Hints:
mainly alpha, 2 domains, elongated
Amino acid sequence: MKRRGFFRPVWHLGIKEMRSLFRDPMLFGFMIFAFTVGVYSAGKGSSIDVRDAAVAVVDQDQSPLSQRVISAIHPPEFKDPVVISQDELIPVMDKGDFTFVLVFPPGFQRDVLAGRVPELQLNVDATQMSQSFTGSAHLAALISRAVTIHTQRRLVDSALPVNLVTRMRFNQTLNSEWFGSVMELVNVLTMLSVILTGASMIREREHGTLGHLLVMPLTPLQLLLARLWSMGLVVLVAGMLSLRLVISGGLAMPVAGSYGLFMLATALHLFATTSMGVLLATVARNMPQLGLMAMLVIMPMTLLSGGTTPYETMPQLVQWLMNLAPTTHFVAVAQAVLYRGAGLDVVAGHLLALSLIGLGFCLISLSRFRRSLAAA
């Protein structure tokens, strides 16, 4: 009976928090947008593949070989090359009209057939970071292939003493949309769980309803748990629907592992992040302060968790610090389960880390919450 008496107020307070969220059109609308349009557009728009890159050509040779090389540059990786003059090279690069400008020197074909090694000049607009890096290598391969076909009339084998056979696993089509959408889902889960939980506390403080709760026979732990389970459940359900309908359905990404295992990891992650939201709300005095503090906390977690850049390439000190962040372990679980089909035996260590981190944040938040209630 005592246990039922403890959890009944937690249940009803959580229902109240969810009703407050659904009655807030801005927060509720932002949540729907983030889990649908935000995740879908991140998958479609974050591609690092070369696609429709603008190429210009300065052909000072006007030979069959230069024409063969130009004809090898075509969609979908590159737009059809635009022939310009030497005088136009600098102005079009300054304007950013083209990502690549390829220059054929005079006598290019003659030097190639004579066995000399002429130089082709490739001017790259490196402000287009991903396009310039990947596109330069792709153009080099196209040029080498076109020159080989023209000079020998057939493809020759590489001089390498081994035959390298590449097999792609887990993403055979190298579809970057799948990676971008899942990492965006991780970011949205983190951001909204922190913001919604913190906003629920700030809202009660600003509306004066916190004083009503203080006169009720409720403990700080009950008030804290009500926010954690209600906001965590809302974000969990929205995240699973986004994975099913947007990522697996709209973007056609196959989920290799178990939905249940990923849901368990998401619940543990939300336990930690909702506790962080409560902690931030006990420090912030109003919604603008909460928003600024959330940005300072969420941005480093999302950028350094391994979802944007490989975790192994970061400095050792950063790796040690990020082991204390829930996003690092959640990203590892998401990639292992959703991409590689990992089971519980593979991700058990990360799940344990998420549990301990969540428990630590919960205890700190409870201590801060008690102090804020005592000062209210």
